Amino acid sequence: MDADTSNAGRVDSVLQKIERTRQARRHKFYLHDEKITLSHGSGGKSTHNLIEGVFAPAFSNPLLDAMDDAATFRVDGTDDIDHRLAFTTDTYVVSPLFFPGGDIGKLAVHGTINDLAMAGATPLYLSVGFILEEGFPIVDLRRIVASMAQAAKEAGVAIVTGDTKVVQHGKADGVFINTAGIGLVRASWLMGQAQLEPGDKVLLSGPVGDHGIAIMFAREALDIESDVQSDTAPLHTLVASLIEAAGEGIHCLKDPTRGGVATSLNEMALGSEVSVALDEQSIPVHPEVRGACEILGLDPLTIANEGKLLAIVAPGVADTTLQAMHNHPLGRDAAIIGTIQAEPPGMVFLRTDIGGLRVLDMLVGDPLPRIC
Amino acid sequence: MDADTSNAGRVDSVLQKIERTRQARRHKFYLHDEKITLSHGSGGKSTHNLIEGVFAPAFSNPLLDAMDDAATFRVDGTDDIDHRLAFTTDTYVVSPLFFPGGDIGKLAVHGTINDLAMAGATPLYLSVGFILEEGFPIVDLRRIVASMAQAAKEAGVAIVTGDTKVVQHGKADGVFINTAGIGLVRASWLMGQAQLEPGDKVLLSGPVGDHGIAIMFAREALDIESDVQSDTAPLHTLVASLIEAAGEGIHCLKDPTRGGVATSLNEMALGSEVSVALDEQSIPVHPEVRGACEILGLDPLTIANEGKLLAIVAPGVADTTLQAMHNHPLGRDAAIIGTIQAEPPGMVFLRTDIGGLRVLDMLVGDPLPRIC
């Protein structure tokens, strides 16, 4: 079997897997709600249900159905895997607009860069769409715009097209920002939620929960002193170094933003019809974040991150990948946190610190709305 | 002089023109406002000031500085004009969400398709970002999503990536939608706001003001019976037929949305350092729209359209282009409405029905906020 045939076979098998899991998910996640609730924006189970119950069936096409954070395609209409583009979008409604470690503008640039990076792409160009509320101070807008410009410059991407809308006072909340992004895919193999194989190792690039907890502490209602800062950061150079180190041993990259590590791994388990076994002790969490979660009854694994990534890699390159993470400033505290197993498909398990085993579900409800 | 040298010279001259007008505009449009007002979202003069005073200086780069509705570029980093991609974004905050002739979903698909088409591109892929207000009925969301899916299918584009955010009740207005789009540029020459030449003819593809007036009539506060329907339509097949008919005689295409024909032509006059002389009698306006404008003291030339385009073409191909418009269902009522002149740069003039001559400015203020 030559490389081309093998590749074509692999593409077919992936497409079949996507189709099977799509049908399974659609059956499982029929949407019964009559009105939108905050939990539909959590990034967790309700968001999943809304996507599978409303958006996915209406917009269905092979690129969307893969349900990765970025779509990848060639613009010449061929199926060739090389020289694909990645395309993604995210809207940012974070509250408050300014928080320790960042602001909505920085987040809007980093978040879309990261979705491109997770597709193995070098980010090239961003679009930006603003929704401004009547009465919003222009000095704050300038501050946000300057932060976006700086974040884009530091990451080597250009904001090349944009749009501005204004709505009446009371019909928005200061400013909402959408960014979409285009990147050039450097990975010449398939990566994504449908690519996990039993035996693969799960790597996490650093401590979880910083962004979500920083936002929570920044809310006016909470008068708590804290040193927790958002971890917002552009991850494309970390991804580039992982690709260089581990090549096609990298099966899937994902930044665990809304819904946290728990939700991201559940989505992958569903997308690849595998299970994920995690070792709780190995998952890095800053003590202050762990403390806040204990007080508030939150699970750090469901809290949003903006500068971390999960890498699912072939067992043979796990140590190389971990070493590459440790050598990068954004991966210094990386760890191997789990393993992919064949059975039971679609589930995530956590071996707890006290030796128990529990099912780790997606985020249910939304304890921290408007986190990004 | 061979073709390559001539082309390079033309690119240089265009870049110089963009740089000169950018500096002139920046000087002219310094932003003095302290807070965002509805007129900053009008698409007219205040929007222009906001863009030139806040966004353009912060994000400045050669692609953005051209200030066309879509950025065009090659992803391989070369300057070659062939095989460019077009990339654009628009956010939709129209109120009401459903109106005669369309809805926010249809508008969000058509609008972004049209921005790609105006760059001479075949639209390929769209992204969609939803902001949903807590409490929004899912039945209405399904209706909007179905409308988007149908509009995309009819236009032959795929929605390949998306995002959903939810904000608290009272922090948005039902639903806001952002779409970004990627297209493949079919024009192998430069088109855009910097490309107008004295002697060029100004063509308009049909009657103006339908969309804006339809929205106005649809507002609950106005209890007026009317047959006016939004003209929302995807213009990419019309553009394809114009490109086929007139080739590089087409210097600039623009869909006169927010701010209407008056604002679009003023932007072009500024971008190309030319003046535009319009003949009021030749500008098609439906009688009902004209009547509504007279009663309400509005100028149909500043009212938004969603299915019309302006084509600025070399005089030698004006008749051919007009004929191509007439042969297309979306250009049946097209007309030649004016001429590009060298002096005075940056101005638009209207020869009125009664024989006078008046300056036609961009839209000032915002008589019809949230039109798209």
From TrEMBL, chains A, B:
Pfam families: AIRS, AIRS_C. Residues 68-185 form the PurM-like N-terminal domain. Signal peptide: none annotated. Residues 197-344 form the PurM-like C-terminal domain. InterPro entries: HypE, PurM-like_C_dom, PurM-like_C_sf, PurM-like_N, PurM-like_N_sf. Belongs to the HypE family. This is Hydrogenase expression/formation protein HypE. It comes from Dictyobacter arantiisoli.
